Amino acid sequence: MPEAIIETRGLTKNFRGFTAINNISIRIESGTIHALIGANGAGKTTCFNLLTKFLEPSAGSILYQGRDITRLKPDQVARLGMVRSFQISAVFGHLSALENVKLALQRQRGESYDFWASHHRLDHHRERAMALLVDVGLEPWADTAAAELPYGRKRALELATTLALEPEVMLLDEPLAGMGTEDVGRTAELIRRVAEGRSVLMVEHNLGVVAELCDRITVLARGEVLVEGDYATVSRDPRVIESYIGGARHD
């Protein structure tokens, strides 16, 4: 069996008597793109927040590369190599694309954020920052303020800042949310490219992209694992059709 980079055992989260996540055991294999899907209210966001340590579990454990990280804080988990992006783009709008990536590189190397310092202070990160912008197709927009980038390009910039932290695992929260057709295709291909040599866990609603990109899929329903497998397996499961695809059809 391939090595698991992230594993949960009996993961549970209660909110004042309401069980949002109930006894979930998930295994994310190293070097794969793994999707977490389900209808609204299935528990995807809660599960994602537990894995990235923005919530503390009520019961169960989380392992990263075999190490128990259940009680670690988000910054400690990030330093181990698990780096999260958010559904809402989290970049500094008043800074250029290049400056955003240089700041991420500065943080990755444990340096302080000196916003008031001369721009030359960050020049030693320029070569690596430009290489990351090339990787995500943003080289022509290096000097463009992040706030002026189209939405899809802004999400690409967020991926570049995430890559600057040199993650072993990228955790992507609905990376294609709100995108038009052209941006969806471009960003999906970008995710495929940056996933080479690392592992990716993504929460995503776009089933077409999930089918094309993901090696393995976990379907949640009412806070529990409904089924897990490749797309061909989960898409044929009657419970998935009823709970996820059928539910989405009636929304």
From TrEMBL:
GO molecular function: ATP binding
PROSITE patterns registered for this protein in UniProt: ABC_TRANSPORTER_2 (PS50893)
One of the Pfam families matching this protein, by short name: ABC_tran
UniProt keyword list: ATP-binding, Nucleotide-binding, Transport
SUPFAM superfamilies, per the entry: P-loop containing nucleoside triphosphate hydrolases (SSF52540)
Domain ABC transporter: 6-247
Protein name in UniProt: ABC transporter ATP-binding protein
